[in-house]
Design brief:
The chain is mainly alpha-helical and 394 residues long. It contains 15 helices and no strands.
Length: 394
């Protein structure tokens, strides 16, 4: 293998490893939540604050991702990526050492700022480096790699949570393995108009807001609903007496495993179906999966529901990323990806806030059933739209 091929392989590996860090940001510590709640049971508002340890990074990702997108459009990609990776390792591991719940939340906030830089930069770099079918394929691989990384980190988090609720925080030190690789492999890309594979020329500076807001809306809904799994599932399994932290970690990892396998097929799905039909399939899989979870009374039945919903999740991220980078002009790509990142993680952060009243008014099982039913309604709407004789959306 010549030097050029080796450098290309290293660059791809770094992009994939860095992308996997975004999965670690929240869900890695999900199996620790019940034990963390017990550890801080004497703290005021612990029942409210402990779930926020999982989701507060998402709030700061949402707050900072658009600014990160502007920064990379103006000042370049590589510098922001390296700074973000280093900050990620320091902030992520801080939870292992801190004794105050509020201090842990502050560390998680800084982690969110770092993830905003990493996720926005990686997706923009992929759009810069690849075009056409190569872009579809690599974004599918990116989503798959994130999911497979999630399987490893979530499973490891579940086992480490059996030792101590603090132990999973050490997983974030993985950032310092990636940092020197990124410094070596990432090359600041030259701007290209990408005219033959992009519906808008570089000179077109107006953001196509109608299509962009549609994608942002799908992203918010999809992520808010998906995050019921890492936020609520450990408590559901505990209530039903179906498993400990380890089983919760394995169950959540099962979702990401199926998601990764599905994501590897995105290029084929994209070639066969239009935008609305793919969106309908995403909602259909998630709706059916949540319906199965709602009526489950065994661990195996819960796993079946997670497998089905994981198929929808596997299509969600490459679907949104590809549609967005092909919709917007090249010179606005960073801003658009930053906005998508903001929307995704705003949905992630607000997930426990939006689902808590429903869970309190009914039960965790019933709340999964209600949300699943709403997703099936969305699937019908997008399915009907996709079958109409109208031009294909992004």
């Amino acid at each position: 293998m010549n030097q050029s091929a080796t450098s290309s392989l290293m660059l791809k590996l770094v992009l994939l490893l860095a992308s996997s860090m975004t999965v670690m940001a929240g869900a890695t510590i999900a199996p620790s939540l019940p034990e963390m709640l017990r550890a801080f049971s004497n703290s005021a508002n612990a029942a409210f604050l402990v779930p926020l340890v999982l989701t507060v990074p998402a709030l700061f990702i949402a707050l900072c991702a658009s600014a990160a997108g502007l920064a990379i459009d103006r000042w370049g990609r590589k510098k922001l990526l390296l700074i973000s990776i280093g900050l990620y390792g320091l902030a992520g591991a801080s939870g292992f050492f801190l004794d105050s719940l509020y201090a842990i939340l502050m560390g998680r906030a800084v982690l969110g700022i770092a993830v905003a830089g990493i996720m926005t930069t990686c997706t923009t770099l992929i759009a810069d480096y690849f075009i056409g079918e190569q872009r579809y394929q690599f974004m599918g691989i990116q989503a798959a790699f994130m999911s497979f990384g999630g399987v490893i980190f979530l499973t490891l988090g579940g086992f480490l949570a059996e030792i101590s609720w603090r132990s999973p925080f050490l997983i974030y030190l993985f950032a310092f393995v990636i940092l020197p690789l990124a410094a070596y492999a990432i090359i600041e890309p030259t701007k290209s108009s990408d005219r033959t594979n992009h519906p808008l020329s570089e000179e077109t500076v107006k953001m196509p807001m109608k299509g962009v807001w549609l994608l942002y809306g799908i992203a918010f809904i999809g992520m808010a609903i998906f995050y019921m799994i890492p936020v609520r599932l450990p408590f559901l399994l505990s209530q039903l007496q179906l498993g400990s932290s380890k089983e919760a970690g394995i169950a959540i990892a099962c979702t990401t495993l199926v998601s990764g396998i599905t994501a590897t097929q995105f290029q084929r799905v994209r070639a066969r179906f239009n935008f609305s039909i793919i969106t309908a399939l995403i909602f259909l899989f998630m709706g059916v999966g949540y319906g199965v979870i709602s009526v489950s009374n065994t661990y195996q039945q819960v796993l079946l529901g997670l497998i089905i919903s994981g198929m929808g999740l596997g299509l969600l991220m490459p679907h949104l990323n590809v549609a967005l980078v092909e919709l917007v002009p090249v010179n606005l790509r960073g801003q658009a990806v930053g906005g998508l990142t903001t929307t995704l993680f705003l949905g992630q952060f607000l997930s426990p806030v939006l689902t808590q009243p429903l869970s309190q008014a009914t039960s965790l099982s019933v709340s999964y059933g209600i949300v699943g039913g709403l997703m099936l309604v969305g699937a019908l709407i997008f399915g009907w739209t996709g079958l109409r004789p109208t031009p294909k959306l992004p």
